[in-house]
Amino acid sequence: MSGTGAPLAQDAPPARRDDGRTAVPRARIRHNDYGPLLPPGLGDWEPRLRVSVVIPAHDCQEALDRTLAGLAAQSYPAHLMEVVVADDGSDPPLRIPGIAPAGTRLVRVPDGRWGRGWARQTGAAAAAGDILHWVDSDMILDREHIEAHMRWHHLASYAVVLGDVRFTPDGAGPGAREVFAAVAAGDAEKLFDGSAPHAWRAGVLDETRWLRDAGATAYRLHSGATTSVPMALLRSVGGVNTALNMGEDTDLGFRLAQAGAVFIPDPQARGWHLGPSTVMLREKEVHRHNWSVLPDFIPDLRWLRTHPRRHWLVPYVHVVVDARGASYEDVRASVDAALAGTVVDVAVTVVGPWTALTGGRRSSLDEPLLDMRLVRNLYGHEPRVSFTEETPHSSAPAPFRLTCPAGWALGADSLAELLKLAESEGYGLLSAVLDEGDESETGVRAVRLERTAAFARAALVEDSGDLDGAVHELFGSFWVSADDFGVKAAGEAEPVAGDPAKWRAGAARWQREAERLEAEAESLRAETERLRAEVRELEDGRQRGPLREIIATAMRQGKAG
User: Which UniProt keywords apply (predicted)?
Assistant: First the structure.
């Protein structure tokens, strides 16, 4: 590759760091609008980043041969590409065929482990590149597929690139030699007449300007078929969840989103999936399976979290209450209110000097940290409350964090209304002003609702430490009055009492009453319309005959009288 190509967005070309890896520009992308990035034309730029192509595979030697043959003919420089095949317990074991990239090697999933999650993570752990590129073993990639992905990674350190996948009518395919020849000649498309994109994916892309308008939901299209991610970003979220054998790519996409990723679909990164996917063939069964496990990991699946008393592994909102220097009563008011709201999938972390609470002899009523002791006593066995010495650096993978000063209590709907505003406008930060504080205080006290992805993105691109400023630039922020959202000082707040089941029962009764009144109103509307119709009939003369008869009868009776 040669030529200057289009300039890299925002910054100078990548340079080598002291650790030997390549430093990537910190492009500042708003939400998921990657439009300002200017990728170079294919074949018209100079790559620097190393890519590790990871292929999870199980009992699929023939399909793997075709996939590796296509990779052997890629336009991306061979010295910057390695291929790792993660054999998920194949019997007989998979082998590297004659036609394969020079840097191809096999690793085995550990004995006793199995499944796509384990295969993907085993391959990732063995990879040495700057970028990890997932490819399924039944995929054939166009000649410039890897190159198309990699040009984006040279522009932004948090890009997750999605290839353009088309599906063939059946799983039959050409031989490995034919694949290699066609891909090398740039004629791979001729091998797959009748291929088509996934209809749902195509619809999402069309509705969102190819994810530029997708906002926080862009991760929905993250798929393991052909997706690439910076290795540092992948490791920052803990890699692939090895407990998942299905839906692991969606779970990973969600966690990457919370880490600040921007998702970029590239139509020039063409690839073909031999035969329909499992989802296309057995959609209802796939959903039945995945929807039993993914709600625990992905709080965004709101329609699957409708149970009013369930506890979930990953909360939708992580509430942080700083108890340092606060009274037991104030901390209790804040924590209890957070747990009793209409948003039920919340978890609370209380910050305080917990390690100082020793188990030695002490005065039960006069110890110096009595208030902290009482807080620990009260919530020590509450599964939704945890304790920490310092405010957590991040609340990921929870998509939102709310920080609340001790002594302030959320109303029943406060959190729900703040979330509604943040979600509808895409805000990265909402600050609900509590009071102006006295002269000894340095600023305005507020309850803060922070979007996890926004602050993660800000940390990736901002060197000055002004994360709030970066969040405002990239996602937007807004100030509101805490009083308008029902946030009150502990002494002014309504007491948290009663059984939530009773609240729901009361709400159900009001709902039934509203439905009854609506039915009654509909009946009255129908009666009103009937009477209006009768009036119209009288007005247009269709009742004149009977009226004349009535008048004539009255006149005869009058004469007779």
Answer: Coiled coil, Transferase
Cα separation, 413 vs 410, in Å, equals 8
Contact of 14 with 24, CB cutoff 8 Å: yes
**Which residue is it, tokens 């600050």?**
431
The reported pLDDT for the residue numbered 2 is: 40
Residues of the chain with pLDDT under 70: 1-25, 436-442, 496-509, 512, 541-561
The packing angle between helices 467-474 and 452-461, to 10°, is 110
User: So what's the pLDDT on residue 170?
Assistant: 84
For residues 440 and 534, what is the distance between their CA atoms, to the nearest angstrom? 76
Q: Mind spelling out the 3-state secondary structure of 106-151?
A: EEECCCCCCCHHHHHHHHHHHCCCCEEEEECCCEEECCCHHHHHHH
Q: What is the pLDDT of residue 559?
A: 57
3-class SS of residue 549: helix
Q: What is the DSSP-derived secondary structure letter of residue 26?
A: B
Q: What is the largest CA-CA distance in the chain?
A: 122
| 3-class DSSP assignment, residue 445 | strand
Number of H helices, E strands in the chain: 17, 20
Question: Helix, strand, or coil here: 55?
Answer: strand
Q: Which of 451, 464, 546, 463 is closest to 30 using CA atoms?
A: 451
Length of the chain: 561
Which pLDDT score is estimated for 9?
38
Percent of the chain with pLDDT over 90: 76
Looking at residue 26, its pLDDT comes to 76
C-alpha distances (whole Å) from 397 to each of 231, 251, 298 are: 18, 10, 8
Measure Cα distances from 77 to 40, 51, 81, 182 in Å.
16, 10, 7, 19
Predicted local distance difference test score (pLDDT) of residue 510: 75
Residue 351 tokens read as 């910050």
Q: Is 411 helix (H, G, I), strand (E, B) or coil?
A: coil
Amino acid at 391: T
Alpha helical stretches, state H, 154-304 = 176-184, 199-207, 231-236, 248-258, 278-281, 283-290, 294-297
Tell me the pairing of strands 477-481 and 429-435: parallel
What backbone phi and psi angles, to 5 degrees, belong to 385?
Answer: -115, 130
